[in-house]
Specification:
34% of the residues lie in helices and 19% in strands. The strands form two sheets. It has an eight-stranded mixed sheet, with helices on both faces. It has a two-stranded antiparallel ribbon with strand order 4-5. The longest helix has 16 residues.
């Protein structure tokens, strides 16, 4: 059967993508950010998965305010980088895994989660920036990627508890796939930031690091945090962190296995008025 070997958590700040594309990664402002992913890039090369299941949010690119699915799984064979107003990022197209994606959709829907099936869509910085941070600038991404878009843009958005339970359903779906695939699940977005209004530029480093502590040690309790705390403490866009709970819910300790191993943890402010958080957790085998 397929199995989830690790989960990766990272911010997906659009300016990070611009810094990569414009060759600014060594500039003083950006160097500390990219240095924090040096371990991760080496680790991914040494632990290349067969498939990445990547949880992200679309930023009014594939979906608009006319149609906003709460949870959408990409089941296509490929996904092109989106034009977000200044042309598509100069990154490889994303190769999907239609067979595993369709299996996950079937299994998760039968576990009473309503998913939107998307056979064709472009993917924006929410998905491509995490790939760039972890993979550098390759001619092609190292493995197929299944995009999983979550609405954290327009209220109502899913609760942390719902996302955590969805992660558990995704783990069951992947483990029931009858091919021995090594799968990583990535949760992206966040950390604290607000892009508009009187609190624009808000960063709450203490809260962010406490979130990382709780995500590692007590994710079930963390999943019960109400939306208002995310907004109050982490800014209006801090709600993206519920997507990290999908990845955390898919780890084997939630199903009674041993606690995961923390391979890497990184936090930095600022990056374009945003806090950057990053974590890699490895599933441990009994």
């Amino acid at each position: 059967m397929a199995r989830i070997t690790a989960s990766v958590y990272t911010s997906h700040v659009p300016a990070i993508g611009a810094a990569i594309d414009l060759g600014k990664t060594k500039e003083p402002y950006w160097k500390k950010v990219f240095d924090g992913y040096e371990f991760s890039r080496k680790w991914l090369k040494q632990n290349k998965p067969d498939v990445i299941f990547l949880v992200y949010n679309d930023h009014a690119t594939a979906f608009s305010l006319d149609l906003i699915p709460t949870f959408a799984i990409g089941t296509g064979a490929q996904f092109l980088p989106a034009d977000e107003g200044w042309g598509p990022r100069p990154v490889p197209k994303v190769i999907g895994h239609p067979e595993l994606a369709a299996h996950i959709a079937q299994s998760v829907i039968q576990q009473d989660f309503d998913l939107t099936i998307v056979n064709k869509m472009d993917v924006d910085h929410g998905l491509t920036v995490p790939l760039s941070l972890m993979c550098g600038e390759p001619k092609k991404w190292p493995c197929p990627v299944i995009p999983f878009a979550v609405n954290v843009v327009q209220y109502p958005v899913p609760s942390g508890a719902r996302c955590f339970a969805l992660g558990q359903a995704i783990r069951k779906a992947i483990e029931s796939y009858d091919e021995p695939l090594n799968v990583q699940i990535w949760g992206t977005g966040g950390m604290s930031h607000q892009l508009q209004g009187a609190r624009a530029g808000l960063i709450n480093a203490d809260w962010d690091n406490a979130f990382l502590d709780r995500l590692i040690a007590d994710p079930k309790k963390l999943s019960k945090m109400p939306h208002i705390e995310y907004v109050r403490e982490a800014g209006s866009e801090g709600i993206e962190l519920v997507m990290w709970l999908i990845a955390r819910g898919a780890m084997s300790d939630i199903a009674g296995g041993p606690a995961p191993k923390v391979l890497h943890r990184f936090f930095h402010v600022p990056a374009s008025n945003t806090a950057v958080g990053h974590l890699i957790l490895e599933n441990m085998v009994r």
